[in-house]
Amino acid sequence: MNEQFFSALEALSQENNIGKEILIEKVKESVIKAIKKDYPFSEHIAVDIDPDTGKFEMKILKEVMEVMYVDDPDNEIYIGEARTYDPDIKVGDWVEIPINPAKINRVAAQQAKQNFKHEIKDFERNQIIEQYKDKEHTIVSATVQKVEPATLNAVITIDKNEHYFYRNEQIPGEVLKEGDIIKVYIVSLGGGEKKQPIVKLSRTHKDLVKKLFELEVPEIADGTVEVKSISRIEGVRSKIAVYSKDKNVDAVGACIGPKKSRISAVVSELKGEKIDVINWCEDEAEFIAKALAPAEVISVDILESETKTDIKSDGTEISKVIRKCRVVVPDNQFSLAIGNKGQNAKLAANLTGYKIDIVPQSSVNAAEEEAPAETDGE
User: Fold this and answer.
1) Are 335 and 225 in contact (CB under 8 A)?
2) Which of 223, 228, 262, 229 is CA-nearest to residue 245?
3) CA atoms of 221 and 345, how far apart (whole Å)
4) Which helix (H) or strand (E) holds 320?
5) b/e map of 335-357 (b: 16 or more CB within 10 Å)?
6) Nearest Cα to Cα of residue 147 among 118, 120, 176, 111
7) Which helix (H) or strand (E) holds 156?
8) Are 8 and 15 in contact (CB under 8 A)?
9) Cβ pair 143, 180 in contact under 8 A
10) pLDDT for 193-237, tens place per residue?
11) I need a surface site. Which of 45, 83, 102, 275 has the fewest CB within 10 A?
12) Do 49 and 67 form a contact (C-beta atoms < 8 A)?
């Protein structure tokens, strides 16, 4: 029986890359919990496991008392009875009373098994978190191991660890295949829900774009060029605003690279997603106009901000300042400014943080013509 147990322990240690000493401690904790089910008032329970000698013993410890009728029979024992276990025992000593594994009821044994599984899962979870804690908010290379045909969820490996990669975190339209090597962004660690992955991975997160540019553009990696903001509709288009701290370095040119080599590498990794790189500037009106590229802009008027208050389910109020602007564009640029399905306007709004009202020049002229002329009052 013990030989089978220690063989299983050895296999479990190798399969899960967990030290044998750690596994033994987890087994001890689980068995003690099971014994507690059958002996709820026993305060001193010991489990000895020694793979070198093949020993696996469970016992209850009781203090040896001189009186025959002890006050706490769960934790105390009369010396006469104690000497049936150890003839040399003395008053004040502790006697070890063996527990026959067969006497642990089935429910307690099953509970021990469940506790052990839970302990191992917690250990593995904490081990992975420790391994990846320095990689949170970075990108790593991953290899696709398999893709589920029905859901298109994938299993990928990073540093020899397998991870579940959900379809909704993959780039829309992307078709992963076994053996593909992809870049993934590590969003967070922990997984609050039991069914959630320990390491949350994404290829739809906007910071994936930023990290890809850091890999391809040395000026971003060394801090000469700063990424000020990013807006993304994954799988379709991204806008990235950059700023150079060195007057001699062209931020946009650095991101595009010689013969578009740098931006092409990012676009290739994102499976053809289009990327607009624009210069960030402090002048908000000018920045908004640039964000609407490739459309031309006639004027940008910054309007008065408004505060919107939402009430959460717990009654807490959350106030949000909504910054607004009005942009006038030539009539022949109106559709371009809005973009297909409103994408260009949406990306510009997310990039700048403004709610943008785009109007064609003709509607502005018509409104001005219809407005009554001002007269001096008498």
Assistant:
1) no
2) 223
3) 29
4) strand 317-329
5) ebbbbeeeebbbbbbbbbebebe
6) 176
7) strand 154-158
8) no
9) yes
10) 555 568 999 999 999 999 999 999 999 999 999 999 999 999 999
11) 102
12) no
Closest CA to 5 of 47, 59, 60: 47
Instruction: State yes or no: cis peptide before 101, omega within 30 of 0.
Output: no
Provide CB contacts within 8 A for 122, sequence distance 6+: none
Are 242 and 277 within 8 A, CB to CB?
yes
User: What pTM was estimated for this model as a whole?
Assistant: 0.72
Residues 327 and 356: beta-carbon distance below 8 Å: yes
pLDDT higher than 70, residue 104: no
Rounded CA gap, 211 and 139, in Å?
Answer: 7
- Distance, in Å, from the CA atom of 123 to the CA atom of 129, rounded to the nearest integer, reads 10
Tokens standing for 38?
A: 């059958």
Tokens describing residue 250: 């062209």
Q: Which amino acid is at 264?
A: S
* Kind of pairing between the strands at 45-50 and 55-65: antiparallel
Distance of CA 75 to the CA centre of its chain: 48
Dihedral (CA of 11, 12, 15, 21) sign: negative
Q: How many residues does the chain have?
A: 378
Cα→Cα distances 24→98, 133, 198, 352, 361, Å: 19, 27, 24, 57, 77
